[in-house]
Amino acid sequence: MQPRNMSMSGAVDLSAVKAAAEAKEKAERARAQRAAQPGGQQAAGAAQLVIDVDEAGFEREVLQRSAEVPVVIDFWAEWCEPCKQLGPLLERLAQEYAGGFVLAKVDVDRNQMLFQQFGVQGIPAVFAVIAGQALPLFQGAAPEAQIRQVLDQLIQAAEQRFGIAGARVEPGQAQPGEQGPPEPPEDPVLAAAHAALDAGDLGGAVQAYRNVLDGDPQNAEARLGLAQAELLGRVQGVDAQRARKDAADRPDDAAAQLVVADLDLVGGHVEDAFGRLVDTVRRCAGEEREQARLRLLELFEVVGPEDPRVTAARGALARVLF
Question: Which InterPro entries would you find in this protein's record (predicted)?
Fold first, then answer.
C-alpha cells in the first residue's frame, strides 16, 4: 500500500447515499432503539470513536459528522479473514488518536448499497469522508506504520484545507449522561481575554487569546474568541457603503471581497458572507485564492462548526477546490 496524497481527487458522489438514507427512516428508528438498549452501541467505546454504520444512519453518522471530524470507513465482512486483522488495528488506532478521526465500520453483507455506491472492488477497503466528500485510502490489510502515515496525512489535510481538527478526548472520557469530575477553574488568561473582548479592547483580547493558544493550540474557546476579536478589529472604521461599492465594481479583487464578507458576517448575513468567499476562491488564483480560503475558515470558527450553514459552505468550498 502506498500512502495517498490527500488531494481529494476522485471523490465519491454521495447524493444517492443521502437519498437512500432519507427513504429508510423507519429502519433508522429501529436501529436507534437497539443501540439504546443496555450494552448497545451507544454505550460502546470512549466518546463513540468507533461506530457501526448502516445505510439508514449513514447521512447522520458519517456525512454530517464529517463536517466536524474526519470519518474513516472500514468496509468488512464476517467471512473475510484479512478484515479480522485490519479491523482491530483500526479500532485500536481510533482510540489512540483520541478524536483525531472517527472509525465507521460497515458490514458489506448487510449494506450492499453502500458497498456499490463507493465502488468497492474487494474487502477490507478503507475510505475517508471529509466535509461530505469521500476518497479512497487503501484496500487490503496493511502494515501499521503505513496505515499511521495515511491517517496522519488525512488529519493534516482535514485541518489545513477545511479547518476540521476533530474533538480530542482523553482515554476513558465519561459517556453522555455519566457524572464526570468537576470542571477545573477557568484559566485566568482566558478570563482576561474574555474581559478585554467584552470591554472593546480588541488588541488586548487578540494578544490574550494568542497567549492561551500558545500553550493550548486546541483550546476551542480561545480559538473562537480570537476569531471574533480579529473579525471585529478588521471592520472597525470601515466605510461600509464605500466597501460594498468597491466590491461590486471589482468582483475579481479578493481584498475588496474579503472586507465585505466580514461586514456581512458582523451584520448577521452569514450565508452571504460564506457565498461571497466561496465565489472569490472560485474566481481567484494563487495567493489571493489562498487568502479567501483562509478567511472563510476563520469565519467558520466565528459561526461554529455545528451550524448547518457552515456545513453547507464547507461542501461548497470542497466542490470549488476539488
Answer: Thioredoxin-like_sf (IPR036249), Thioredoxin_CS (IPR017937), Thioredoxin_domain (IPR013766), TPR-like_helical_dom_sf (IPR011990)
pLDDT in tens, 206-228: 998 999 899 888 888 888 889 88
All three cell numbers of 108: 458489506
> Which residues are CB-contacts of 73 (< 8 A; sequence separation ≥ 6)?
53, 62, 104, 105, 106, 118, 126, 127, 128, 129, 134
- Residue 40 has a pLDDT of 42
All three cell numbers of 168: 480530542
**Low-confidence residues in the chain, pLDDT < 70:** 1-47, 166-186
Give how far Cα 253 sits from Cα of 112, 129, 162, 243, Å: 48, 33, 23, 12
Strands (DSSP E) contained in the chain are 50-52, 71-76, 102-107, 125-130, 133-139
Give pLDDT, residue 185.
Answer: 62
pLDDT score at 275: 94
165 near 107, Cβ under 8 Å?
Answer: no
Active-site residue list: 80, 83
The packing angle between helices 220-235 and 286-303, to 10°, is 120
Q: What is the pTM of this model?
A: 0.51
**How far out from the chain centre does Cα 209 lie?**
22
For 128, residues 6+ apart whose C-beta sits below 8 A from its C-beta are 70, 71, 72, 73, 101, 134, 135, 137, 154
Number of neighbouring beta carbons within 10 Å of residue 310: 23
- Helix (DSSP H) and strand (DSSP E) numbers for the chain: 14, 5
- Structural domain boundaries of the chain? 15-162, 186-236, 239-322
pLDDT at 48: 83
Task: Look at residue 169 and give its three-state secondary structure.
Answer: coil
CATH number for region 15-162: 3.40.30.10
List the one residue out of 83, 94, 79 whose CA is nearest residue 142: 83
